[in-house]
Amino acid sequence: MTDTELTDAVGEPVRTARLDLLPLHVAHADEMAGVLADPALYAFTGGSPPALGELRARYARLAAGAPGGGTVWGNWVLRIRADGTLCGYVQVTIRDRVAEVAWVVGTPWQGQGFAGEAARGLVARLRGLPLHAVVAHVHPDHRASAAVAASAGLARTDLVHDGEAVWRLDLTAPTAG
After folding, report:
1. Is it true that domain 3-170 has CATH number 3.40.630.30?
2. Which of 29, 84, 133, 152 is in Cβ range 3.0-4.6 Å of 123 for a Cys bridge?
């Protein structure tokens, strides 16, 4: 599968029980600025809430796609189907057939299972692609994010990268059955 074919396969919408994972567009920045506005959201990752102009510029770069060179990006906003509001995002960076995933759910929607549901939906999409593994980096004190990783089928490894625990799901191992 070429990078272009992989990009096309990754970039499709994903539907879960309660969420639509919609490919990221610059137009999402207006609503997402509110979703990402709580400074508490950055306790484990660092940084601060992005200004609207900064978020629009970031989304324009992300929506344009990875710069090439064997890297593929996928970025989706999470829309709650029941009321149509956006509540967060998931993303993947694929290099050398390894998919690195991340998720963020805005503070008002945390504790409702949206992050786990979105992560499971994303991993299910990735399972259908010719990949070797899915990995995530989780701050060692972020119990909620660790629970999301586990619910998506990833297991904590002994590896640490930039102070974060590496979680991994090997997609090449035979499944029990």
Report:
1. yes
2. 152
